[in-house]
Amino acid sequence: MKSLLTLVLVLLISFGVKSQEKNGAVYIKHPAIDNTKKFLAAFEKGDKEALGAFLADSMVAIYNGSGEPQNREFYLKTLDWWSTEFENLKVVDDAPAFPDAIEYSKGGVWVQDWLLITGTHKKSGINLKLHMHDLYQLNKAGKIASLHFYFSNEQFDAIKSSGMTQENGMIYINHPLITTVRKLVNAYCSMNIASTSEFFTEDARFSNSMMKSGESIDLAARSKIWEGDFAKCDNINLKQSGYPDCMYFSKEDEYVVNSWWVYSAKSKLTGKKLEFPLMMSHTFNKEGKIVREDAYFSNNHLE
């Protein structure tokens, strides 16, 4: 049995070695990489003549695998769009990625890179931050025979839509979710943690203007803060200021209620009255539960 197992392992290893076949080499430094860097520098400067010098007469540009390639003339016209529409255009390697040159035994020379293109769209003011993966096929003369671009169209769609007047849902002055927020506020003012918690999903997130950008806490941590509020204060009250808005965002398919309040309470320790303006934003799921709470206030009132 042991001899049979050894024979099987030897055969498998031999098969694995024989199934491998080298088809070229990969380079971190290569003249082809130098040329693509110069090509990108010409693109960044909007130098159509310098850019065209790197392109074969029969070159094609292909976007996201499209079956409709652009020819050389049409591709060079796109440089006019970039130069006209954008300012402060910059192209850099999307670190930590770096370009590779691949010399195929069968297939010629290719360069691949990963880029970050930044700039400001003049008309819309949108700041572009485009991650792009490029493949360059070079012919025997070292000219680019085909260009393959891979990127997300999301930012370009935003630029295209920026000149339109476009609705993104509805705003309601009265809505059942506004009632839910009022009931939430009443539960908090009654200093009942269990009742307050019932308005939120178990995985709800909470943030406020005193936190760092992107920081949030979970329901358990928020409950501890409520517990601290109730231990330190009496006569907690939130008086509505103006009126809440319930907004339905069709793009995200979600409801958000923004509300404005004057928060007041009396310190159990000093007897002093605490009062400050408060704005809250509550995001709801389809079951009418709150999945996110964002609170905005000045911490000067809490010192």
Account of the 3D structure:
- This protein is α+β, with helices and mostly antiparallel strands and 303 residues long.
- The chain has 2 domains: 24-161, Nuclear Transport Factor 2, Chain: A; 169-302, Roll (Nuclear Transport Factor 2, Chain: A), CATH 3.10.450.50.
- 30% of the residues lie in helices and 40% in strands.
- Strands 1, 2, 3, 4, 5, 6, 7 and 8 form an 8-stranded mixed beta sheet that branches.
- The mean pLDDT is 92.
Structure keywords:
303 residues, alpha+beta, Nuclear Transport Factor 2, Chain: A, 8-stranded mixed sheet, 7-stranded mixed sheet
Task: Give a nutshell description of this structure.
By secondary structure, the protein is α+β, with helices and mostly antiparallel strands. 30% of the residues lie in helices and 40% in strands.
